[in-house]
Amino acid sequence: MSMSVLKVTKDNFFDVKNSDKTVLLDFYADWCGPCRMVGPIIEEIAEENPDILVGKINVDEEQELAAAFSVMSIPTLVVLRNGEVVNKSMGAKPKAAILSMLD
Questions:
Q1: Where residue 72 sits, what CATH number does that domain have?
Q2: How many domains does the chain have?
């Protein structure tokens, strides 16, 4: 995981949710093939967009957060603005589709 991607846990989630920045959350698991495909794209987006807070949430370790966002399958990407969910998608997506979620 690169420096620009934050590992999100229930301990730091409040700060992430209340960030002034747009937040992109990647719900994933280490054993999930599609998650491993999306991972490098998420890191690229984080590095290229310092104005966006990018976080990864391991659903095996953070089951409460996964439940709070009704994550039924992974990868699930969630975009937050001012603490509210403004976009959500499930499944592996190409970079352009992920970036369009942030508009």
A1: 3.40.30.10
A2: 1
| Percent of the chain clearing pLDDT 90 (strictly above) | 95
Place of tokens 């370790």: 61
> Which residue has tokens 């990018």?
54
The answer to whether residue 32 is catalytic is yes
CA atoms within 13 A on the CB side of 70: 3
Set 23, 24, 35, 42: catalytic member? 35
Active-site residue, selected from the candidate residues 5, 24, 25, 32: 32
Confidence band, pLDDT 50/70/90 cuts, at residue 3: low
pLDDT tens for 50-98 read 999 999 999 999 999 999 999 999 999 999 999 999 999 999 999 999 9
Number of H helices, E strands in the chain: 4, 5
**Owning domain of residue 75:** 5-101
Q: Annotated catalytic, 95?
A: no
